[in-house]
Write a structure and sequence with these properties.
mainly alpha, Citrate Synthase, domain 1, Cytochrome p450-Terp, domain 2, three-stranded antiparallel beta sheet, 16 helices, 3 strands, globular, binds acetyl coenzyme *A
């Protein structure tokens, strides 16, 4: 029976490796721990794109090129923001990105990297009845995203925290959205078409759509006053505890630890309110409830749990969390699209027909 392609190897990649048993994530030869909080997002974009674009500049120039791409994306998409603003924030971003040229150049790629960081604040501001703020091509990518959202230059700690988040989610093996991206790229469609496939896959709550429900869960548990009873009832009703479990990791998701450290750093500067201490208590209760309810399965905290806390502290509403995830993952999608195209091989698996057979006419 086909069951989610669990053990199928569908690509050779130099981009990232997920060690689910050991709890390690490698990005092009570097452990995530080495990158997050130390390398800027633009440096990691360079790392991922290296060898996939001929004209890739050095780190400093690439940071500036991403800044110019933010301005370019804003100017191209500004006229149609009003049309997509009534959609939900993720669909609005996806619709905006669909309007970008479907090319193959580095400029096309950088515009796609820039677009979620530009569109998300602009659409959130329009939704609040405020004017979008134009990008500053000289600012760093994460800091500028926060400035365009909140209207003021963020604290260096917050900008660095968001940058570390973008690095943390930049790539993660052959997850559902990356696979979807590679399938479309394998047809030799353009980068925008390929990225749109990734965007579609990332929207679902079993993939990138989980951190919003994490906030709803924390709010509901706080209102109930009894975390154990609330979580047990969820399991009894056959529902999933959001922010826990992973198809690949059987130990803690290393990205959860990276983001937990970032959120703790912000908490020490009073930039997370009282949320962190409460969330850490809920995490412990949830792990215990899951351990007892699902003894046959090791279910641990995943990246989405601490993503929710970090993005809430950064001022993003929960409806926009998947947008920010996309702002980081888009770099990985583009590199995978290029890597897939370089193989020259169309992805075309088989299906196993289990439907009725026609009567054979003698
Ligand atoms: N809460 C409750 N039970 C769970 C959870 C959870 N979060 N995760 C897995 N289980 C249980 C299932 O109910 C099932 O139990 P059963 O055997 O008694 O029926 C068992 O664990 C195995 O479930 P599968 O669906 O086969 O596990 P899979 O590896 O496919 O699940 C998934 C991975 C989809 C992420 C799952 O853990 C889940 O739904 N988590 C909640 C949503 C979430 O946090 N998503 C974000 C994932 S991280 C990311 O994509 C970036």
């Amino acid at each position: 029976m086909a069951n989610g392609l669990d053990d199928v190897v569908a690509a050779d990649t130099v981009l990232s490796d997920v060690d689910g048993a050991g709890g390690h994530l490698t990005i092009r030869g570097h452990s995530l721990m080495e990158l997050a909080g130390r390398w800027r997002f633009s440096q990691v974009v360079r790392l991922l794109f290296d060898g996939f674009f001929d004209d890739l500049p050095g780190d400093a120039e690439l940071e500036r090129a991403i800044g110019r791409a933010r301005v370019d994306a804003f100017e191209r998409l500004r006229p149609m923001l009003g049309q997509v603003a009534p959609l939900d924030i993720y669909s609005g971003m996806r619709a905006g990105m669909a309007m970008l040229p479907d090319g193959e150049t580095l400029a096309d790629a950088l515009r796609l990297v820039a677009a979620p960081a530009v569109l998300t604040p602009a659409l959130l501001r329009l939704g609040r009845g405020e004017e979008p703020i134009a990008p500053d091509d000289k600012a760093d990518h994460a800091g500028d995203m926060l400035r365009m959202l909140n209207g003021s230059v963020p604290s260096p700690a917050l900008a660095k925290g968001l940058d570390a988040y973008l690095v943390t989610v930049c790539d993660h093996g052959l997850n559902a959205s990356t696979f979807a991206t590679r399938v479309v790229a394998s047809t030799l469609a353009g980068l925008t078409s390929s990225v749109l496939a990734g965007l579609g896959a990332l929207k679902g709550p079993l993939h990138g759509g989980a951190p919003g429900p994490v906030i709803e869960m924390l709010d509901a548990i706080e209102a109930s006053g009894d975390a154990t009873a609330w979580l047990r009832n969820e399991i009894a009703q056959g529902r999933r505890i959001m922010g826990f479990g992973h198809r690949i990791y059987r130990v803690r998701d290393p990205r959860a630890d990276v983001l937990k450290a970032v959120v703790r750093g912000l908490s020490a500067r009073n930039e997370t309110g009282s949320r962190l201490a409460f969330a850490e208590r809920v995490e412990q209760v949830a792990l215990e409830v899951l351990r007892i309810a699902k003894p046959h399965r090791s279910i641990q905290t995943n990246v989405e749990f601490y993503t929710a806390l970090l993005l809430e502290a950064a001022g993003f509403p929960k409806e926009a969390f998947s947008n920010v995830f996309a702002a980081g993952r888009v770099a990985g999608w583009i590199a995978h699209a290029r890597e897939q195209q370089a193989t020259g091989r169309l992805i075309r698996p088989q299906s196993h027909y289990v439907g009725p057979v026609p009567d054979l006419v003698a």
